[in-house]
Amino acid sequence: MPVINILIFLGGLVLLVKGSDLFVLTSSQIARRFGVSEFVIGLTLVSVGTSVPELASSLTASFQQASGIVIGNILGSNIANIGLIASTAALLTNIKTEEVMLRRDGYIMLFASFLLFLFMLDFKISRLEALIFILFYLAYLLFLLEKVKRHEEEIYFKDFMIYFFKFEYFFDLKSKIKPQAREYGIENRNSRGMKKGTWKSEKITQKKNESESKIGMRTKTELTTELTTELTTELTTKSKTEPEHKDIDVDITEEKPQEASLLIEFFKLIASGVAIIIGAKYFVEQAVFFAMLLEVPETLIGISLVAVGTSVPELMVTISAARSDYAGIALGNVIGSNIANILLILGCSGLVHPISITGLSIYYIAPFMLIMSFLLILFIRTGWRVKQFEGLILLLLYLSFMVLILRLG
Question: What is the pTM of this model?
Answer without folding.
Answer: 0.72
